[in-house]
Structure formats: structure tokens, C-alpha cells
Amino acid sequence: MIIRKSPAEIDKIRISCQILGELLDLLAEKIMPGVSTWDLDAFAYDFIIKNGAKPAFKGYQVPGLSPFPSTLCTSLNSVIVHGFPSKKVILKEGDIISIDVGAIKDGYYSDAARTYAVGTISPDAQRLMEVTLNALYKGIEAAIPGNRVGDISNAIGTYVASMGYYVADDLTGHGVGRYLHEEPQIPNAGSAGHGPRLQPGMTLAIEPMVNIGTNRVKENGWEFSVADGTLSAHFEHTILITDSQPEILTVAKGERV
């Protein structure tokens, strides 16, 4: 069932989302060569707690896996999503790192992601990040009342393919708000005019995950990586379907790459 939110619920989700927007901007100042992903995770945990919220990912459970151990998903280079922070993972010049994070504030969830350059990166990595961010906004532009979920999927997938890249197989966006993962699933490729109709009050996490070399993924527990070891990037916003244009709730000032 797709949950349409009341104005009071939307206000609470908006506050939760604002925490993430600010956090993602602050992390941009922390990401540099020599920093461990463990330190980034500790900073994010403290920030979320100081804002009266709780990390949404830490302790999250799915069947067959141990609870997710961290505040952040820190996914480096060919890791698409769900990488674990570690004291042993030290950022190096030329890396790209995707940070995915969620928060719970007053019982309502937010979810957002951004890919960051570590120092000076290659032209290929820079272009991948730009295409992935543009794909996110292509999807958001299609999130208007009366359209269907497939219109979001088609906007993302068509653009990514036109740029010579691949969306990661079987990794999707989703509804978010009362729960971290709600209906509907939002694939990053699909047919326009298909799927549930978008209606005001829906809150959705749109999140293209884009690979350079292949759509295929390999799975290792929580972690998903590009099957051929090429680079992947990930951007995500929580948005609100309104009576007209979508509202980005996880507003961030510094996400342009």
C-alpha cells in the first residue's frame, strides 16, 4: 500500500530531511585524502544525535543478514551501495565515495545520498558523477501528479543510457516517511506510463545508481559492487509529490559536482 502523508506528517518528514541535507553539506568538508570512513561515520552519528534524531540505518534488519552496523553507507569506487565504514578504509586522492544516510526524527524517516570526489579525480569519474546527478534531477522532474512511477524510471534510465552508462540491476528507489522503505519501489529504468499513479502527499526516495561498465552487480552480504570493477556513483533525494512541481525535502546547498 502506498502511504499518502497528511500535512502534519509532511512537516515532520521535512524536518527529518533537513537534518540530512545539512549533514551531507558538512561531510563535503570532511572528505579528503587520509580520512577513514570510520571517522566519517562517527561524525554523522554525532550530528544526527545532536539534532534530536536517530540514525535510520544503524541496526536496520533484512532477512538473512546481520543488522546493518553503521550510521552511513560508505561505498568506495566500484562499490555501488551499502559499504561498511571501517578504520581500515582510508580515503585516497582520486577516489570517489558515495555516502547514503537516513534519519528518524519524531518517528518519521528521511533518506538521501551523494557521491563525493576525494581530492582531484579522473575525468571519467567526474563525468560519471555529473551524469548520475543529472539523472536524479531527470527523475525528479517526472515526479508530478498524474504521472506514474514508470515515468520517473523511464526518465532516469533513458537519460543514463543516452550518456553511455548503465543503471545498476535490481537496485531501486522507494517510498519513505512512516517507514524507511515503503511502497512503491522506483526502478531506475522502465516504461513510461506504467506503474502506480503519482498523487499529492506521496513522499519518495529517488536514487539512481549508475555504473560505467555494466549494469550487472555482485553481492557480498549487504554490499553491492559493479560486476566488472568499474566505477559507480549514487545520488538520492527524498521528495514530496505536490499539486504541481515536486518539492525536494533533503535540500542541500553543495551537491553540484
Automatic annotation (TrEMBL):
Organism, scientific name: Candidatus Syntrophosphaera thermopropionivorans
The organism's place on the tree of life at top rank: Bacteria
Catalytic activity, EC: 3.4.11.18
Keyword terms of this UniProt record: Aminopeptidase, Hydrolase, Protease
Name of protein: Type I methionyl aminopeptidase
Top-level EC class: hydrolase
Statement: the UniProt record of this protein carries the keyword Protease: yes
